[in-house]
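Re: the 235-residue chain
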Amino acid sequence: MAISTHALDEWARDYDELNGILEDLGSATRISELHGVVSGLHCGSSGAPLNPAAWLASFIDEVKQDAQMMAAEDDEAEVEAEVEAEVEAEVEAEVDVELSEADAETLKRFYVLTAEDLTSELFEFSLILPDDEHSSLPDRVTALAEWVRGFLVGLGLSGRLSPSPQHTQNAVPGDEAEPMPADVQEALQDLSAIAQVDTAVLEENDNERYYSELVEYVKILVLTLNTTLKPVALH
């Protein structure tokens, strides 16, 4: 499955096709969540050169591990305890993740474009979410929550919000890591709240307008974090 490598705001139109690549790969992750994870990784990065091939290899490894765990859980329910070790070995050998060259290039391009989108001088960062015209509002709200949860996971995986090894090694009793800037703490708190949003909140608000405002607010929070974290080390 080949997808044109245009700007990410236009990629949102290919939401189903991008999800199709992940489904063909055997991933349970939707493209909204994956875009959130990658955005978080880039936002918390130290500015090192991008390595899309290494990222894709790591993502494929995660898909394989998840598939092995799911397959093992299914088989363990059907076999006796004494043969579990043999079954797990068979499961590991059976799990195979295949990705066409075209789809691999699409995902690597997706990784690079996400970084470029975050640093755009025009501040046109876009979230990859279901199309407003062809998706129900509850589905879009669910995808937005998944995107935000993915972003927080990616930001955590980047290590930018953790104490530096130097600080940990030199820590003394009573010594505390340098606190995060107030705007970073506030942004993370707001994102954590949005990550828990569900369709019930739509009953209390002007549905479509509230959703649109949430999406725009998430963009602002992400760009704020990206701007704040990039030039200044937290620890």
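The radius of gyration is 20 Å.
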